[in-house]
């Protein structure tokens, strides 16, 4: 882009210089014609000695050659009688005695017509202002010629003024400009190359490191450090890639831990079922009571496995759920779940208190219903007979907080940090799977909320499930 602009600038600048040169030559010709016509009116003939001196003074500082021609085209006066200032033409023959013109200059002009035969001179002697351009090859230059008629007071053409000027000053100026432009182009090119190399390095180097890290991850490596370097979009890409790898590593760890936990939980009931079945198959005991006990153990373990599978399916569905949230009427949901729990066989009625000013939060209604059902089910199982679980809905930090409180013995402080872990239960004899609170924790995370518990000194446990509104900050969990 810069070379093209520089070239166009040089061309425009050359045109301006040539136009200025031609205007200057026209002005000199007009002034000289005015002087000569004034002398003619005073009776001074063309070619008078004073004319040569005037012409020399006029052309001295302008690098211009001015000649006065008679009606036949012969040179009467020449501003450069001693030789051309820079052009190739020799002095006229009548002035050869004072000429210092070189043979080289003579040879350079040998291809040009004689002055009287030139088209611009003939036109000027015919009464017409004329201009012409000629080229010299050694040295390479363009010469401008302007011929203007000189008239007497009666209007008759008595001669002509012939102005010659080389474009060498223009060429010198253009050479200077082009040299400056070349420097600018070279500097610009150097800067462009440097910036291009710097940008290429700043882009390719971080991308190369990311590609190598991705290749290591593809090969199955874990804990691959992801370099975060570069600027702008490259840095954002590296940060996103790092976050993705960390999330992927966490997901892989979760799957690994989940598989280990499931295998551990399934192992005990499966071992028990297998042992009882083998004893029955071998006929180790013919006592009906023992056979009944073995069969009952098999049924109990099968039911436990069924509950585990059901809860695991619920947990996996919640953690894998995608899609947009919808507005859920939490108050209506609590009323529905509380009524269903209160009418369960042998269950204590649930006390429900709705103090919140809002009712709606964005969420998945089915998942929230499962979470609340698990909390109420836990509270009913751990509350003593005659003590009803209490459910409270209240406003909290731009969202809603659901609190489910029981009157049970509470949870030992050493176990409180684990109650939301998968398969952890404080009392396996009550038939728990250890997945109820884990499901509640997953629902809270899926909704951008939080879950925590509080245990009172005199007994009883309160589990809090906080759900954010449209834009809320999650509260800190406490125990």
What does this structure look like?
By secondary structure, the protein is α+β, with helices and mostly antiparallel strands. Among the domains are: 165 residues, PAS domain (Beta-Lactamase, 2-Layer Sandwich), CATH 3.30.450.20; 145 residues, 2-Layer Sandwich (Heat Shock Protein 90), CATH 3.30.565. Helix content is 50%, strand content 16%. It contains ten helices and twelve strands. Strand 3 and strand 4 form a beta hairpin. It is rod-shaped.
Structural features:
alpha+beta, 479 residues, Heat Shock Protein 90, five-stranded mixed sheet, 10 helices, Beta-Lactamase
In brief:
This protein is α+β, with helices and mostly antiparallel strands and 479 residues long. Among the domains are: 2-166, PAS domain (Beta-Lactamase), CATH 3.30.450; 323-467, Histidine kinase-like ATPase, C-terminal domain (Heat Shock Protein 90), CATH 3.30.565. It has helices spanning 2-41, 49-59, 103-108, 119-125, 168-218, 232-282, 288-320, 330-342, 365-382, 436-446; strands at 64-69, 75-78, 130-137, 140-151, 157-166, 326-329, 351-354, 360-363, 390-396, 399-405, 450-455, 461-467.
Query: How do the SSEs run, as a string of H and E?
Result: HHEEHHEEEHHHEHEEHEEHEE
Q: If you consult CATH, what is the topology of the domain at 2-166?
A: Beta-Lactamase
Main beta sheet = 5 strands, antiparallel
CATH superfamily of the domain at 2-166: PAS domain
Briefly, what CATH class of the domain at 2-166? Alpha Beta
Question: What strand order characterises the main sheet?
Answer: 2-1-5-4-3
Q: Could you tell me how far the N terminus lies from the C terminus, measured between alpha carbons in angstroms?
A: 69 Å
Strand content: 15-25%
- Mind telling me which CATH architecture of the domain at 2-166 this is? 2-Layer Sandwich
Structural class: alpha+beta
Average pLDDT for all residues:
78
Uncertain segments of ≥5 residues (pLDDT<50)?
A: 94-109
How many DSSP-defined strands?
A: 12
Number of helices: 10
Radius of gyration: 54 Å
